[in-house]
Structures
1.
Amino acid sequence: MISTKLNRSTLNQSVLVLNTNYTPMDICTAKRAICLFYNEKVDILESYSEFIHSPSVKLPLPSIVKLKDFVRNQKMDVILTRRNLLVRDNHQCQYCETKKGPLTIDHVMPKNRGGGDAWENLVAACQTCNRTKGSRTPEEAKMVLKRYPKKPNKIHYFQQFIHEKQGAWRPYLFLESF
């Protein structure tokens, strides 16, 4: 059993999952990566400085894991979810660029005018900007989008998860050579 003294955020740290050919496949939590490791599904390639303790085991907290069996994964699509959309937009209103307060999801072309739920039609917006825009297009509301929405590919999406602690991820995400 893993020690309960761990901070919940420790087990929620991001872990890069690589296929057997070292191509990036996914990002999971450290908790999930540890389960995969103990079920002998992955090898741990890189670790954070923290350790997970049980009465009989001391395991470095995984940062990068590699699957033991190849998974045929042709899709480089990022699933359209609220969380993924906020990551794409850097948790920032695409009209006023604020990061304060809860963000909403705005349809650039309003739904009641034929705008659908697609990467190219959705942006993060603060509540004030979303109310101001209402059921109008940005042009009609005289509001300017700071960045036009586009569908991210998986590599660019993964690159957004790199922070100071994930420096070891950089070569696997084509940001520097090995």
Note: The chain has two domains: 8-73+154-173, 78-152.
2.
Amino acid sequence: MAGTLNHELLNSLDLQVLSVQRTEAGRWWNYRHVISPFSRLWLILEGEAVVRHHGREFSLQPGQLHLVPAFAVHDCACAQGFNHYHLHFAARLPTGIDLFSLLDCEYQVVAPVAGLNLFQRLEAIYPERKLPCFDPGRAEYKRFPVLNTQEEPTAGVLAGFEARGVLTLLVAEFLKSARHHEGLHARVSRQFLAVQEYIQVHMRQTIRLADLARVVKLHPTYFSDQFQRVVGVRPLDYLVRRRVERAQYLLLTTQDSVKAIADAVGIADPAYFSRVFTRLCGASPTAYRSAHSA
């Protein structure tokens, strides 16, 4: 993990609790092709269920913690009963990249001895942060991450600080098994972190190759060649991917129009935005929003 994340990045990790609650699920807990712009963490208390993602099937049983990272497409089902705590959270680096997009890890681990106490403490800090419903396909479910990204007025600064500490302890259980992920974002993070940071800050603006090269103090042509050698794509192609990923997040968590989202990610021409999005995601922005539950 050291080659992917360093002390500075871990300390700057932005952790946010979006919702936390205990739920006794039944056969209704049966959803297909769920994809969310936030991560899920389940503590299984009683019963059994099944979840499938990353090409694997996991049996959820008492005493386990299970992680479904952001944007991981997954199916879940419960045959009888399933008593569990579920926590929805965001874990973003200053570059805007989700922590688990840089890592591979064990997605299911034995819960720590204090696991139940940690979930109960988060629920005590944020008693109002409950899901508006349990069906990921409903509009109110899709909107809830946006509504919950600000601290509750009654929580206070110290309570929010404590919540991030508790969430850190839970996330750390998965970082223990973390290993290098050879994906696109990880390669950029290791060699061109400043470029990622620049894109995150200036995404709404016009960004040229010369702007990115200036960040790392290289000639544009040399920078482009080096970037492609290390990352596997040209810098401007990577920029487009980052913009489309941000658009995916906005499509699933806001009710903004496609044009407004295109503007927000720095693509002024809605027609061009739709073509690029369709090429990279396999569906138009409108179809993507309709097809994917949040």
Note: The chain has two domains: 7-180, 184-291.
